[in-house]
Design goal:
352 residues; five-stranded antiparallel sheet; four-stranded antiparallel sheet; 51% strand; globular
Length: 352
């Protein structure tokens, strides 16, 4: 399957059925291309840079208040952005000690941030305005971990592993942290490896449903834990996000995919992934390709269409990582003149 790329600074729509059903098993000579006419300006998302030119950075998540988290120069970072895309403050969240690298991966409605940082090992990061940056606790037999997601109730999901560099495929276990309402130390629960050789939790919704992945016998599959129930997704799936209805976004056999009502639907071409989904079922992700050559592009899927997201200049590749309840999208845009990807957000078209 091939896909047409944006022409200049104009978005191009995927010609894909929104149900996704016609994509299951597609391949071979099938092609997906954009229309020849330019898309009206009123239908386009507006791209906004979050950092100055030339600063390597990426944005991973955004809450409904406009708090954006990601990384700047390999360090966890937070931006506070107004409704028009103006950045009012930028803060590095590295915390104490010598931090070699790190990233902020998720932020909830209260502005609590989770992610990771590497000191002597890779450690799960927690940041709040009142407490600053600290390491989340790990079970005594695990040496490393990453916190991938959290909800407004203060429940955090991620994973831990026995080695210092956090490789969940062998010996990795799903971890759940709960923040103390009185400001005490977070409690950690070890949910195990879900019967596999390794596992990791990647996302949690407001109901406490957890989505993640399991590795077993050289294969990978995903799971969705809802209360006492457990749904197993097909082989070759990656569960990366879950919304309030328990719909899971990720990939299936190399295609962006959606798990809903017990069925897996491919929603993108071969060589794509869905990275986030909000409660309005807006999905964002990317079509793979080397962004430095302008061949990888972020996309947004709404009820009306699936569209590419343009970058900061005419030949930029883009990646879309997160979307909030208002449809504001965050990610990165490769800027050839700077030789680096830069954190950006996309503001959706305003409804008249």
């Amino acid at each position: 399957m091939t896909i047409g790329r944006p022409r200049g600074r104009h978005l191009v729509a995927f010609l894909l059925p929104l149900s996704g059903s016609a994509l299951v098993g597609c391949g071979g000579s099938d092609s997906v291309a954009g229309p020849s006419e330019e898309e009206p300006e009123t239908n386009r998302h507006r791209v906004v840079a979050l950092v100055g030119p030339g600063r390597a950075s990426s944005a991973n998540d955004v809450n409904d208040a406009g708090w954006v988290v990601g990384s700047i120069g390999g360090q966890p970072a937070l931006w506070i952005v107004d409704a028009d895309g103006g950045v009012s403050s930028t803060e590095v969240l590295s915390g104490p000690g010598a931090v070699e690298a790190g990233g902020a991966l998720a932020v909830n409605g209260a502005g609590t941030v989770v992610g990771w940082r590497r000191t002597d090992t890779v450690r799960p990061l927690l940041w709040s305005r009142s407490g600053g940056a600290v390491d989340l606790p790990l079970p005594p037999d695990l040496a490393s971990g990453i916190a991938f997601g959290l909800n407004d109730a203060g429940h955090i999901v991620g994973g831990g592993a026995p080695g210092p560099e956090f490789s969940p495929t062998s010996g990795g276990r799903v971890l759940l942290w709960v923040l103390d309402a009185d400001g005490g130390p977070p409690a950690v629960s070890d949910l195990g490896s879900f019967g596999g050789e390794g596992a990791v939790g990647r996302a949690i919704n407001e109901h406490g449903d957890v989505a993640g992945m399991v590795w077993q016998g050289g294969e990978v599959y995903s799971f969705l834990q809802k209360g006492d129930g457990l749904e197993q997704l097909p082989l070759q799936t990656e569960a990366l996000a879950v919304n309030g209805e328990g719909k899971v976004a990720g990939s299936w056999s190399g295609q962006a995919a959606l798990w809903a009502s017990g069925s897996m639907l491919a929603i993108g071409p071969v060589g794509s992934v869905a990275r986030d989904i909000n409660d309005a079922d807006v999905i964002v992700g990317e079509v793979f390709g080397p962004v430095e050559s302008g061949q990888g592009f972020g996309f947004v899927r709404t009820a009306e269409a699936i569209r590419f997201l343009e970058g900061l200049s005419t030949i930029d590749g883009t990646r879309a990582h997160g979307v909030n309840g208002s449809g504001v999208i965050v990610g990165e845009s490769y800027v050839p003149s700077a030789g680096a990807s830069e954190a950006v957000l996309w503001i959706p078209p305003r409804v008249p």
